[in-house]
Amino acid sequence: MNTLSFMSANYVARQLDYHMTEGWMQGDSATQAYFRPIETYAERFDALMAEIAGLGFSAVDIWLAHLHYAWVTDEHIRIAREALARHNLTVVSTAGWFGNDRGEFEQACQLSQAIGAPVLGGNCALLAHDRAWMVETLRRYGLKFGYENHPEKSIQEMTDKVGEGEDDVLGFCVDTGWFGTYSVDAVAALRAVQPRLFHVHLKDVTGPGAHKTCRLGAGVVPVVDCVRALVEMGYTGAISIEHEPEEYNPNDDCVASLALVRQALA
User: Fold this and answer.
1) Phi and psi dihedrals of 38, rounded to 5?
2) Structural domains in the chain plus CATH codes
3) pTM for this structure?
């Protein structure tokens, strides 16, 4: 059975009282400002993990705004590890932007290794201009990097971005919602990258042309077909439930989405 995880970026708008009017980075900045102070980190991170576990999840993807390599200290990591253990949560990935240079990427690898996240799911500037060093560093830390499709409007664009070779550490973290935004066949995309599929962000959107997320099964992405394709492909990695509304708390939708995916897997 695949591990089903909760993407902590689902709460991107929370620190804005679900009134995110200026885009993703507004939510990212507000979240980092709220979680960064070490004086309040234990209380705030524990509450976050308790809430996720209370929704019925046993695994989590840690969005970097909740624990960022730019400001993390040994004490932040100790607090995070203790909270994860207390709530019986496994970390299946870290998620976000993994740096513009070697120093930032190595910090991201150190953080991911420290909290037990085997996959970095997102993007990094080094993929385009310092790929060989990135590969060596991932191998040194025993990690994998899954490129998450965002701007790519076709399967070919996505595979070209990652390139060929180094399949042990460079692969894909497919975001099905962005394929819905661009009217790309998400099932075909999953099958196309099957040998190098490290992680899946299972997301639905209300319609093409925009990126308004919704409860899985309520939008245009064939979510159940995606899950069944993963089973047929023999995919054994984690599946992240992702839904990041800007105007309301996603908890009820995420619980319903979790039930839908469990049913599809069964």
Assistant:
1) -65, -25
2) 4-265 (3.20.20.150)
3) 0.97
